[in-house]
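Sequence and fold
=================
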Amino acid sequence: MPNPVLIGAKLKLKRSSLKTVEETITELLAKRDELSASIDGVESEEDLTAIEDSVKENDEEIEGKEEEKTKLEEEIDELEKELERSNQKKPKNRSKLGGNENMDKEQLKELRSALNAYVRSKGAEVRAVDGFKLVDGGALVPEELLTPEKAVEDVVDLLQYVKKVPVKSSAGKYPIIKKSGNRMNTVPELEANPELAKPALTNVLYEIETYRGYIPVSQEVIDDADYDIVGLIDDEIRDQELNTRNFAIATVLKTASPKTIGTLDEIITLLNTGFKTAYQVRLYVSQSMFNDLDLLKDANGRYLLQDDVTVASGKRLKGKEVVVLDDDMIGAQAGDKVGFIGDAKAFCKFFDRKQVSVKWVDNNIYGQLLAGFVRFDVEVADTAAGYYITFTPDAAEPAGA
């Protein structure tokens, strides 16, 4: 089996060569622009011939460097594929706890140390440790090293409301059977089975996206041998991952069929008649819309939303949970009175590649920065499962309407 450490070292050298070639091409293109600009000032045929020769020589160099660049890119692509194939091989010394491939404490300690060394050396040190993998030029952060997510007070995690589908490939299709209300039939003994209604089966196409965010790791932190960089990465990635996937899920919810609603009665009518009873309907509303709803009272001065301490917002409407989101998450800007009403779990699917990785990336201003990557996709599955509403309450709406 090819040694992933050797492959990683080759990749590093090839990427360094590619960067040098790209810089040379940039310089040659700038030189070509200068030569072209100098033609306007030519006063003799001799000077023009000299410039023409220089342009020809420069273009030949550009062509040669472009070919070299293409070759390097192909070699890097092949090495990355070889590295991925090598990483997919099952390690020989992986301990098995309870019949699975979970790591023991000693292996986790060794893996944590290898990841810290990789970050401190800016990718130069790659240890041959079970579970340590390089993906797309970066180090994969195993789930075992990431602490379970803690419930953050006042922060909504939309992932708990949608269907999470673990996937092992970067693209594919996922079959969805829409809720139809079909039922089974009774069958007398020894009689043929009756024909059942055909399910409405559709395929949802997914393509995993890679999301990147910078992790604030200073040179002082890297130089401090006693500092647990993995712990810092854990905290920062968890925070950025939560915000990123919330935004991605909300973006998909906003693609639901639009509907403008002006009164509470219209919302209740939508809840009562707008969905099949099989759907688990909730109201995902902006803070501004929630404020309007929360202030509504009946003729006796009693608030119309029901209290429920078991849900995050503390409120329900006609028994349906109300989930409160930032205005600019479910809407576009502060003050937007909008929301998604429906079954988010049926409406969209969250395709999780289950890959978190870190690597050093170039930055024009700060040089190299450590970046964290997460990979997932969110796609619409059942368009009948929800509506994106805009709430436009009438100024003179009577109390208890």
